[in-house]
Structures are given as structure tokens and as C-alpha cells.
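I would like you to help me understand the sequence and C-alpha cells below and explain how sequence relates to structure.
___
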Amino acid sequence: MKKLLIIALASCALSARSQVDESRNFIYLNSDSVIYANKIRLRPDFLNSWQLRADSRRFNTDGVKFYNNEDGFFANTRKLNYGSYGSFSERIAQGRINLYQQINYDPLIYDRYSRFRRGRATAADVSLYYNKGYQDLKNVNYRNLKDDMADNAESIALLNVYRKKTNTGTLLYAAAGASILAGLITFATRGHDITSEPGFGGHNFPTYKGPNLTSSFLLLGVGLGFAAGGFYVNRSGSRYLERAVSSYNQ
């Protein structure tokens, strides 16, 4: 009996997911129920807590899994960002795997009298998430994607290149940090050179010269070079990640 009940509940959940009409504005709750509305807005309340307004109804964002309006399709990422009170990610790629980019909201600087528009009251960062269908979001990383794209050899090959470049970029950033730190330490601890010059009566007097900063600037320059290399490698690696997801969605 319990097995039949579990199967029935799972079937209802799958049915709700398959019947979502993404051509309309809707709120998708954690309970897998869908609420359609003519107008959906994310707004702060009087206590500066985020809420979703669907026509005349209001919903606490904690209970919302996804919402869709004319600005895009958004997923709640608060569970993946502990301590964040208003985090949603925007879907930037749709298919067998949906890709999302993080968007953070700050109610203290939000313009209450303007509509949501990209770049006005929000800021996107490099945090990426993904899911399949309406499943829970996962962090974009090699381990997660390797498991979920295991049935596509081309995507896995591209994903392996992404991992290699990410590892290389991490090493370059570590080398950059070490070089810059060494340069700063050298700059701070460099002693003054002392030489002797003849004076009156045949006595030699010590003369202090300024520090030799050549090695310090050299280390700083090498560190900046490593940092630039890490940025370039990571950026090229992101292209392989994009190609891996695109290949899987074909």
C-alpha cells in the first residue's frame, strides 16, 4: 500500500512538471504546484524581506522553487547559498540540461518604483548552477556534470578539457599569489646597503644607500603575469564547459 502511495505521489509530481506552460507567467512552489498569474514581480516588503507578488497574492520566496515572467525564468538558489536572504539564478541555457547564472538582490538599494531590469537592481556573478527539467539545482562542477552527462561521450570529453584548464588556472593563480606575496615581503624587509667612503683624517664613514627594489618589482611582475595567465586559461576553460552543455543538449 505504501509503495502504491509513493508511486502515485511521484506520478502526480511528474505530471505537474510536464504540464507547466512556460509561455505564461507562473510561480512553481516547492510542493510542485504551479500558480499562474498575469503579473509576477519580485519586491521587498516593509521589513526588507523579499517576496513574490503574483497579481494580488504574495508568496514568501522560501517556498518558491522557480518563477517565470517576461524578464526570464528564475530558480531559487538560497539553499545553495547559505546565509543569503534573496538569491535567484537566471536560466541562461535551456535543454536536457538547463544552465543558470546567479543573481543577487539587495532590498536596501532596490528601486521600489522601477520594474526589474538587468543591471539596475541586480548584479550577476560567476556562480553557475544547472538542473534537468524542474529538478533541484546543483552546483556546476566536474563531478556533478560528469555523473549527469555520462550518457554523452562528446560532452564528457569536452568536460575533461574543462577540468584540465580549471586545474591549470588554479595553479597559475596560486603561483601568482605566492609571487606577489614574496614581492611584498621582499619590498618590506629589504635592508639598506652600507658602504664606506673616505673622510677627513683617513677615516672611513658609513654611507647608507636606498634599498634595491629590482627583485621586488620583478616578483610582482611575475605574479601579475601568472594572474593574467590564470584568467585567460579559466576563461578558455569556460568555453569548453559551454560546449559540453551545448553538445549534451543537441
